[in-house]
Design goal:
261 residues, alpha/beta, single chain, 8-stranded mixed beta sheet, globular
Length: 261
């Protein structure tokens, strides 16, 4: 049975896809069987890992029942992927039948025994796709940039989390808030960290000790169809992301053969 982790924030540009692809690649490098699920109609996760998202079957075909999930899963250098594209933007209107909150969970149940970890990348919105990701997940990682609007996005997630816990998935927990693009020399960054820690207490979680610094590798890696960990393994961003990986795997335990960093 796989561990399902959803990467989420309704604010865009906070590093969700970079975080998701790095978790996928880092876990794969440590010997895990990994599936990435792209629930963003922009298709960023598949695109960043080198898939031709405009000319392939996608998670949309799985959710509407026109393709079996194993037929849609696509291999990549960072692990298997359920890709997405703009067609998924119809989900809010099209998936309107009772039980629609469980569409993703039911689909993933068919392949959960095939993987150790499933990483879900979500859209910058609190909609039916995001709720599906929360219902399917064991844990949430909430990336944010050190800015006030990003902080507001984190605060607004709480209501959705509470609703999902109450109605659909009582086991859901927030693994932590992740600060991306962080520079401790800037006063605003330090102030946002203090406020993030207050919000973390309200969510009964923590701010990850790992802070992901800015770096050119984050922008360059998608152009090469790679995660930051594969494209620039010695960069400061990759080092930060490996520390995050250590924190995440400590939450659930890991594999005896896993190399240490």
């Amino acid at each position: 049975m796989s561990i399902i982790i959803t990467v989420t924030n309704q604010k865009g540009g906070v590093g969700k896809t970079t975080t998701a692809s790095s978790l996928m690649d880092g876990l794969r490098q440590r010997g895990a069987r990994v599936l990435g699920v792209d629930l963003d109609p922009q298709g960023s996760l598949g695109f960043c890992l080198g898939l031709d998202i405009e000319n392939c079957v996608t998670i949309y075909d799985v959710l509407k029942g026109s393709r079996p999930i194993r037929e849609v899963i696509t291999p990549s250098d960072c692990g298997d992927i359920l890709p997405s594209n703009i067609l998924l933007s119809a989900a809010e209107l099209e998936f309107n039948r009772p039980g629609r909150e469980f569409l993703l969970k039911n689909c993933l149940s068919e392949v959960q025994d095939d993987y150790d970890y499933i990483i879900i990348d979500t859209p910058p919105a609190l909609n039916v796709l995001t709720v599906n990701a929360y219902v399917a997940a064991d844990g949430l990682i909430i990336p944010m940039a050190p800015e006030i609007l990003s902080l507001l996005g984190v605060a607004q997630i709480r209501e959705t989390i509470d609703t999902v816990r109450r109605c659909y998935n009582s086991r859901l927990r927030v693994l932590g808030i992740l600060l991306n693009k962080y520079n401790q020399r800037f006063t605003l960054n330090r102030e946002v960290l203090d406020m993030a820690e207050q919000i973390a207490k309200q969510l009964d979680t923590k701010v990850f000790h790992s802070r992901i610094r800015s770096g050119v590798a984050v922008a360059e890696a998608p152009a090469h169809g790679e995660s930051v960990l594969s494209y620039a393994p010695d960069s400061k961003v990759a080092r930060d992301l490996r520390l995050l990986l250590n924190e995440v795997t400590r939450e659930y335990g890991f594999f005896p053969s896993a190399p240490s960093y």
